[in-house]
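Ticket 4471: requesting a sanity check on a complex prediction with iron/sulfur cluster. Repro inputs:
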Amino acid sequence: MDNLKIEKLGAEHKISIGISSCLLGHKVRFDSGHKQNSYINNTLSEYFDFVPFCPEVDIGLGIPREAIRLVLIGEKVHCVGSKTADLDVTQQLKNSAKQQFQWQKNLSGYILKKDSPSCGMERVRLYKGNMPDRIGVGIYAQTLMDKFPNLPVEEEGRLGDAVLRENFIQRVFIYARWQKMVAQPFSMQALTQFHAQHKYIYMSHNQNLAKELGRWLADAHKLESDEVLEHYLSAMMVMLKTRASRKNHVNTLQHLQGYLKNFISADDKAELVEIITQYSDGLLPLIVPITLLRHHFRRFPNEYIMDSYYMKPHPKELMLLNSL
Ligand code: SF4
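Returned structure tokens:
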């Protein structure tokens, strides 16, 4: 995927994302209903090719069906019927999730239905007696996340939050580029280029971890290629999962501004400083300083910076930087 071509993608180039079927409008819920999500269906579908899956239908529970819930029995979490305690589908849901690994391994992300005892990613009601605590994880979701710990996973409810939405979509695009790179024979040069293109995104998430990963990579040629890829991917995804703070964005923007110091006029410098300060004070969204930086880098091209995904992390039509 070319940096400058993350526009609307043709079907063959769309990124594959797993999704709880009910979020696409499939009538697979226990009450024969669905939970169609308009942002997913109308906006994200331009870029993502959704692969729907309903684990409860897959294990043969009918439509409609008795609702199921998570219950703590002894030390273990079970998924049982809300009325029929004997209906224990825990193992069936785990088995179903394991049988999907073959297609799940090609995904670049997964969007799960919140609150579901099968699909919920977090804060699912877990009953101990009649008292639920919101500490459970859906059985299907847990098995998926255990198998693919680096896969970007998010719930549809959390996509309503601008920061979490941007974080998830950014991770998906980066993960898709990673998959594309590792599909080719290993090359330290390709990994070094990947690192350079994402360095400023890493900085915006966690400066210390970004520096640490850079130092580790400089020495990584001594290691086996499998070890290099495994460590890099896991360190990268942990770093990207932490929210990019305004403070870290300011620091990153100032760093980029430094590349222009010998080229732009004193007035332009003052304007850039002012815009970054206003962003820092929460008066402007991130898209404004980034647009101004892009403008200056178009006048005074710097290949390294223009190649950086920080300057264009996802398609502009998604307008994700407008709300940060
Ligand atoms: S099991 Fe998952 S996909 Fe199926 S209805 Fe429930 S939340 Fe939706």
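Notes from triage: The longest strand covers residues 15-20. Leaving this open until the requester confirms.
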